[in-house]
Fold this sequence. Notes:
The structure holds three protein chains of three kinds. By secondary structure, chain A is mainly alpha-helical. Chain A contains nine helices and no strands. In chain C, a hairpin with a 2-residue loop joins strand 1 and strand 2. In chain C, helix 1 (6-12) packs parallel to helix 7 and helix 3 (37-60) runs parallel beside helix 6 (111-119). The A-B interface holds A 5, 9, 13-14, 68-71, 74, 125-126, 187-188, 190-191 and B 18-19, 22-23, 25-26, 29-30, 62, 86, 88-91, 116, 168, 171.
Amino acid sequence: MNLLIIFISAxxxxxxxxxxxxxxxxxxxxxxxxGPSISMGMAVTFVLSLTAVSSWMINHWILxxxxxxxxxxxxxxxxxxxLVQLVEMFIRKVSPPLYQAMGIxxxxxxxNCVIMGLALLAALKNYNFLExxxxxxxxGIGFTLAIVLMAAIREQLELADVPRPLRGAAIALxxxxxISLAFMGFSGIIK
Amino acid sequence: MNLSxxxxxxxxxxxxxxxxxxxxxxxVTKERIIFNKRHEIEMAALKVVPGARLVKxxxxxxDFAVFEDRDEAGNLLGYALQAAGTGFQDKIVLEIxxxxxxxxxxxxxxxxxxxxxxxxxxxxxxxxxLRYWQNRDCTKELTLRKPPVEDPxxxxxxxxxxxxxATISSRAVLNIVNEAIRKxxxxxxEGKLSGMx
Amino acid sequence: xxxxxTRQQFFKGxxxxxxxxxQLLGLCSVLAVSNAVINGVAMGLAVTFVLVFSALLxxxxxxxxxxxxxxASFIVIIASFVTIADRVLAAYFxxxxxxxxxxxxxxxxxCIILGRAEAFASKNKxxxxxxxxxxxxxxxxxTLLLMGFIRELLGNRTVxxxxxxxxxxxxxxxxxxxxxxxxxxxxxxxxxxxxxxxxKERRKQP
Lengths: 191, 197, 206
């Protein structure tokens, strides 16, 4: 039951993009077309799951037992960076078509707030192992949902006559704001 | 030195230097950070049981903890229950003061909440919500009075006024309180509370 | 391209190359902590601290670090300063630290910091790097404070906790919530673009 709450919360109520403001850089850059957005979302979900596992292990097997919690930030970011490197090399070797589909987005993901944000939030909320993994996957699904929605709207916006000052980031952010407002309707569905 | 060696040396030096520096900073700030965390909890535990001067944690599990509240003389005045649950938006953490017999709620304070500002967030305000929790009879389940009444004396002894426009947040708090008292009673039955003395 | 004067180095970060409104970096943090001015002040100080000191260190070691381990070293340096900022905040300003949540540690992935280290500090001497960092921080802080001011005033009637608008004003609570942040930032970027177009138009006229 608790896991279901975490899932719904991360995808709809406390969506990583529309509530936690994470993942905006790639969001603004990539979400112009639906296709690449789905690929980006898949890549992020994949990295998030791996990060969830590794950040939990580092936190609970090394940092907390040895009283090293001040090393949390440094260790998390280094692990994330290495993880993404390894994943990219691995996918490139093992499955070139998969690499074509999502591998090119991986370098973009390293300094993506979403990944680090997940590691930090899971640690902050003190989730156990299973909860952290569910949290990670749900966050990825929520992120994918967010950018695909945005891409769909932006594809339509391309055809519209947007005033010059608003073109690009400004209208993207305002659109994000309106979607965020809509997502607020999901609050309170867990009672 | 060739490139590979240089790479390794640079990385090692950077790593060691930052590691040592962080270790120093970590140590210097450690005491205060631990103190801050404990202080906030203790302040809340003291606040919800009137007259309490000393608190001591006697039970802890995830999202639930029990503190003993005593006066200067060491008499047990009651318990402070720290409990957490799901609110409208995110997690709500609160501290409930109950008497030693677990029959009366003495007070309530919110430690953490992320409810909607201006609406659900009103649960933290004394005027709007918290004062209704003083001296509530919890021998039966506590219930919410909705729509809220003007005169607090019109409430039944186990009723609390809901906040207009923030029913879900109010109900969330109510559920957390009822659940916490239930857990405390169970601990009492298992002999895990120090009991009346 | 002609060498910029120190003044130009500094001021470019405030307007022409403003990290938030022009380069679209560091948006996550601007949106997250601009719901109250005091949070913005704390975040602004933290980012300035990290940006300036990491620029200084990166510039100092730029000739010794081999290319391949460049990014890794920068990340360790930046992460260390972020940790210091986060620990000091948690130790001496616990309320603020709690209000900001994970966003201070998230400075480590704030694109501004690594971006400046890559683009400037690793290729320039120490003093220009510091000036550049100060200018970028300035631009970031200005945008953050502007957002914070508007959001807190319209959403809560207060600025820095003191009530400014009277009870006659019904607060626009949405300003304190995520949608308000997104829309406000979008509008600020739009207005900044608009002003920029006007300035460029005026320059073109003989």
